[in-house]
Amino acid sequence: MKELKDLIEARAEYLGNGILKADSFINHQLLPGVSTRMGQAFAAGFKARGVTGATRIVTAEVSGIAPALVTALAMDIPMVFARKKRPSFMNDLLLEASATSRTKGEDVSLYISSKYLGPTDRVVIVDDFLATASTLEALCSIVKQSGATLLAIGCIIEKVFESGRQRLEHLNVPIISLARIDLVDSGSSFIVS
Amino acid sequence: MKELKDLIEARAEYLGNGILKADSFINHQLLPGVSTRMGQAFAAGFKARGVTGATRIVTAEVSGIAPALVTALAMDIPMVFARKKRPSFMNDLLLEASATSRTKGEDVSLYISSKYLGPTDRVVIVDDFLATASTLEALCSIVKQSGATLLAIGCIIEKVFESGRQRLEHLNVPIISLARIDLVDSGSSFIVS
């Protein structure tokens, strides 16, 4: 997605240690046109990879909500976002898996109610970053527990140097990213493709 | 918004103690058509109340992101969502205020980078629920600290019995809600209007 690559080059900040800050269009501020076109790019990308009949988009709060919602709008199917805290009043049967947040340095549990994900669902997972794939693996585990069929995975930005894609390859589903970044100059800078 | 009122009556669960669970269309699962029409209803509602020239939607993570994003799409302006944790790598000048989450029973700080909210901004705040107005008051405080002009406040569901609207009246801005619920039968049930 050329518009996204240009945005990353112009406005993302590289803070070192593999951390890319995309606050101005992904993780803090959201731009309406760019967000809509990201959703359309995911929908077109999944279609191009032969994904059909999806019934549900799955993501995790917080930063997954926006990309998953715009994809849900583009594909006209419901979206469900995993909660990171078990709400005190969430009394449904919960599907649960653990992920490690590298930027926050802690383990978090993800919860999805079995009311909103079940054996008849055909699922596409969408998230903001594909880095170590810890969150995506947890979401895949929840999809598997639910009995649903996983069709594909999409992320806005893939950090190629963290090798998350390799960790997801055993799932045998298409993995699409709207932009990829890799480190150069011994990690002091990055390139976008 | 009649569609929303019907949804609340058909699918929201009242758990007692003033807690309404709207997981199936607001706080856990999101429906694409309903979400889009909520954004359009906010945009139309603000316009009908004389709100013009808004430059930014402001909300708080987690459950504010979806309604604020669809409103941002309908009004074609950027949205910024307050973070509840100060990310370890967020080194910008931060605007901060505290809110009490009644459902989670704890105080949380909200943070917005001053990069994305400043004196030239004309702001509409959008959130999921207007209950005690604690989160909305914190967001209003952040808007005030930034020097921006607050134009209006919108929420999907107003819990009339928690009197949040009265707490916001001193701001002298339009406050719109897409549906209102009130308790009946000594709090054992609710009605929607």
Largest sheet of chain A: 6 strands, mixed
Order of helices and strands of chain A: HEEHEHEHEEEEHEHEE
- Under the CATH scheme, the architecture of chain A is 3-Layer(aba) Sandwich
Percent of residues in beta strands of chain A? 25-35%
Main-sheet strand order of chain A equals 5-4-8-9-10-11
Oligomer: homodimer
Quick structural summary:
The structure is a homodimer of 193-residue chains. With 193 residues, the first copy, chain A, is of the alpha/beta class. In chain A, 32% of the residues lie in helices and 34% in strands.
What's the helix and strand layout?
2 copies of one chain form a homodimer.
Chain A (H helix, E strand, L loop, with lengths): L1 H10 L1 E2 L5 E2 L1 H5 L1 E2 L1 H17 L7 E5 L4 H11 L3 E4 L11 E8 L4 E8 L8 E9 L3 H13 L2 E11 L4 H5 L6 E10 L4 E4 L1
Parallel strand pairs in A: 4-5, 4-8, 8-9, 9-10
Antiparallel strand pairs in A: 1-2, 6-7, 10-11
Helix pairs in contact in A: 3-4
Key words describing this protein structure:
homodimer, 193 residues, alpha/beta, Rossmann fold, 6-stranded mixed β-sheet, two-stranded antiparallel sheet, 6 helices, 32% helix, 34% strand
